[in-house]
Design a protein that fits this description.
The chain is α+β, with helices and mostly antiparallel strands and about 210 residues long. The protein folds into two domains: about 80 residues, no CATH class; about 80 residues, no CATH class. About 20% of the residues lie in helices and about 25% in strands. It contains four helices and eleven strands, in the order αβαβββαββββββαβ. Strands 10-9-11 form a three-stranded antiparallel beta sheet, with no helix packed on it. Helix 2 crosses helix 3. The protein is elongated, with a radius of gyration of 22 Å.
Length: about 210
């Protein structure tokens, strides 16, 4: 067996309970975000839960209690986290402080919270004034705020969970074969349908 590292493919909460105390040098992870994305249909999958104060809190409590046991004293744990919009389907509005929940549970388990690193998520820019489709029609992109609803790539309403200022950036006009265009920055990502391009049955790029 390699003495430098090992790979364990198990349920983390159950498996950590079988690991030796103070056996891990560093931990970097992103916990499943409740109600945002379900990876499986298992009741163990926190993504299946919309109960932040019940199921999610209980799962994460078990997790941090085991993690603090196996991390070597004085070592570092890095957690990637985001705030989570409360879902209208659950009769709620606003944001849930998922960051704060993780900090509180980790501290109760014995960790010491030190500081945040802010990471911009998908920092892609569109020109101010660009129209964005919402359930109420098109609105200018710079009027959107956290909690606004827009129409997602699946054609269904989705909630804006973050807005990031871009200040001054180089912008490019991307023109489609139907004559329509959009002005965006050079980092903007696009979903491309290869069949649509091949048979010219959908929108495609002609110049940028």
């Amino acid at each position: 067996m390699n003495t430098e590292f090992e790979i364990h493919n198990e349920d983390c909460i159950e498996h950590m309970a079988t690991m030796e105390p103070s056996s891990v040098d560093m931990s970097i992870f992103s916990p499943p975000f409740p109600s945002v994305y379900a990876y499986t249909s298992s009741e163990r999958d926190i993504g299946n839960s919309e109960d932040f104060k019940g199921d999610a809190k209980l799962h994460l409590s078990f997790f941090f209690k085991q993690l603090v046991r196996i991390i070597k004293p004085g070592r570092v744990v890095v957690v990637h986290i985001q705030q989570i919009p409360r879902m209208k389907r659950s009769g709620e509005v606003g944001l849930f402080d998922f960051r704060g929940l993780n900090i509180r549970l980790a501290e109760r388990a014995g960790f010491v919270f030190e500081y945040d690193w802010m990471v911009r998520k998908n920092p892609q820019a569109l020109k101010n004034g660009t129209g964005v489709l919402t359930p109420r029609g098109y609105v200018e992109i710079d009027s959107l705020t956290i909690g606004s609803e827009v129409i997602g790539s699946n054609g269904k309403p989705t909630t804006v969970v973050g807005v990031w200022p871009h200040f001054e950036k180089q912008m490019y006009r991307v023109t489609f074969n139907d004559g329509s265009f959009v002005e965006c920055d050079g980092d903007h990502l696009w979903t491309v349908n290869k069949n649509a391009i091949r048979y010219a049955s959908g929108r495609r790029f002609t110049n940028a």
